[in-house]
Amino acid sequence: MSANPPIEEMNYEQAYAELESIVASLETSQRPLEEAMALFERGQALAARCATLLDKAELKIRQLSGEDLQGLGEEEESEE
Amino acid sequence: MEQIPLFHLQFLTVSELTRYLRQLIESDELLQEVWVEGEVSNLSRPASGHIYFTLKDQGASLRCVIWRSTAQRLRLLPQDGALVQAHGSIGVYEAGGQYQLYADLIQSAGEGALFQEFLRLKALLEAEGLFAPERKRAIPPWPRQIGIVTSPTGAALQDMLNTLRRRFPLAEVVLAPAPVQGDEAPAAIVAALQALNRTIHPDVILVARGGGSLEDLWAFNDERVARAIAASQAPVITGIGHETDFTLADFAADLRAPTPTAAAELAAPNREDLRLALAEQSGALTRSVRSLLETFRFRLEGAQSQLQRYSPLGYIRSERQRLDDLGRYAGRSILHRLSLQRALLSGVHMRLNVLSPQSALQRGFAIVTRHPQGDLVRSAAQVAPGTELQIRVAEGSFGAKVIDQFSE
Predict the structure, then answer these.
(1) At A43, is the secondary structure helix, strand, or coil?
(2) d(Cα B275, Cα A50) in Å, to the nearest integer?
(3) How far, in Å, are A17, A33, B187, B272 from residue B284 at the CA level?
(4) What radius of gyration do chain A's Cα atoms show?
(5) Which residues in chain A touch residue B188, judged by CB atoms under 8 angstroms apart?
(6) Domain boundaries along the sequence of chain B
(7) Model pTM above 0.80
(8) Which residue on chain A is closest to B271 by alpha carbon?
(9) How far apart (Å, rounded) are the C-alpha atoms in residues B17 and B22?
(10) Which CATH class name applies to B14-113?
(11) Between A40, A70, A71, which is nearest B289 by CB?
């Protein structure tokens, strides 16, 4: 969990996955109250991050260049 | 209808015979679902809109009809001189005394050859295991990058982009443009697939094309395309043509969608579904903490009542009671002992009285002490003539002086 980037830099998948694991852990394991409250707050921040990502996302579109598309032929020639 | 005996004096009308033949023919399953190949001739299309023509080969000819309603939805209509394959059912036109083909599908014999080639390739690749279900990979639920192989100018691309914009704008789309029909299409599609796998490593690749004729879609029946799809590192979803079109590319893909739009829908989750799931998780988060707090409160209350049960106050209370009891007992016992002592004391007192010198004095004895020393005189040797004495008797005392002394 600590390996994750700061919440505001997380992508949706990371944030949602951690949110899920926090919920699961709060539901199943007994923890000291303080720890549980800290987890709860982190979960709330993650949920907010997810909601922001969903609301603000705009589809990014790019196109492979002709060079990219030609690449394989050249590689094959140089390899063979 | 009953079987008509061969030798019978009763004659059939032409209508009866024709109706019998009609029923005979139209109850034959083979004749109701048949493909016929031949050359089109005598084509006519009168004002009614129905199409009449004859299919023939070297040895025979067959009258054919396409009803107007059927003709309207056919991709290919017969043309004089064309070699075609017609599908339909054989029926009898009673008024004309003719059996004929009521055609509902026409394809050129060239298409037929394409189809044969399709079947041959399909069998070949199937035998290689290229289409095996166990080869199919799961489509990642949340693709970060979605590769698209299609024509950059086609409607299919806009359909997919619109769908992705609406459903899952979190993703990045990388388009690898390729012509999707014509002779150069297969090689370009293969190159586009390979380029995506080599440069981007997308989570999923969409290979798509809008609807068209069998020839239009033919690039997706190319063996190279099918193999490139099967070899793709990223799972591939195909959306080629319409619902009814199945290409080899579809068979080789990890997932086949009926249309480009459907392919885009299969590639990404729906934002609304994500919102619901997120709301569900948020709710679960709150519930879990609330129930955790409940647990802590419950435990706290439990501890409090435990505490009360073992509280020193209770102990003190009970000790105080014990003390009270003891006190009462002790009080009683002291009084008892006092009266006992009192009785003992009066006994001793009486005995003391008996032993008292006073009682001796009463009986006439006297106590003689030297004056002024005050010591008792128990022997005559203690005194000499002239020694002053003090004599105590039962009532009072008096002084005296030794006159004489007689030692023993």
Answers:
(1) helix
(2) 9
(3) 14, 17, 51, 18
(4) 21
(5) 69
(6) 14-113, 129-133+142-269, 273-323, 361-401
(7) no
(8) A54
(9) 9
(10) mainly beta
(11) A40
Q: Do B288 and A27 touch (CB under 8 A)?
A: yes
Q: For the purposes of burial, counting CB atoms within 10 Å of the CB of B220, is it exposed (0-12), middle (13-18) or buried (19 or more)? A: buried
Residue length of chain B: 408
Q: How far apart are CA B332 and CA B325, in angstroms?
A: 11
**Interhelix angle for A33-56 vs A12-28, to 10°?**
150
> A62 to chain B: which residues are within 8 Å by CB?
172-175
Q: What is the pLDDT along chain B (408 residues), one digit of tens a residue?
A: 566 666 666 788 999 999 999 999 999 999 999 999 999 999 999 999 999 999 998 889 999 999 999 998 887 888 888 889 999 999 999 988 899 999 999 988 777 677 788 889 999 999 999 999 999 999 998 888 999 999 999 999 999 999 999 988 888 999 999 999 888 999 999 999 999 999 989 999 999 999 887 778 889 999 999 999 999 999 999 999 887 778 999 999 999 999 999 999 999 888 888 899 999 999 999 988 888 888 888 888 888 888 887 777 777 888 888 888 888 887 788 788 888 888 888 888 777 777 777 777 887 888 889 888 888 888 888 888 888 999 988 888 899 998 888 765
Q: Which of A47, A60, A68 sits opposite B281 (nearest CB)?
A: A47
For residue B262, give how far its alpha carbon lies from the nearest alpha carbon of chain A (Å).
18
Query: Any idea what DSSP says for residue B376?
Result: B
Sorted by where each begins, the domain ranges of chain A are: 1-60
How far is it, in rounded angstroms, from Cα B180 to Cα B285?
Answer: 49
Task: State both tokens at A78.
Answer: 């140089």
For domain B129-133+142-269, the CATH superfamily is Succinyl-CoA synthetase domains (3.40.50.261)
Beta strands in B137-266 (DSSP E): 145-150, 172-177, 204-209, 236-240, 255-257
Question: By C-alpha distance, which of B61, B23, B22 is closest to B39?
Answer: B61
B interface mutation test: which of A49, A68, A77, A79 has the most B CBs within 10 A?
Answer: A68
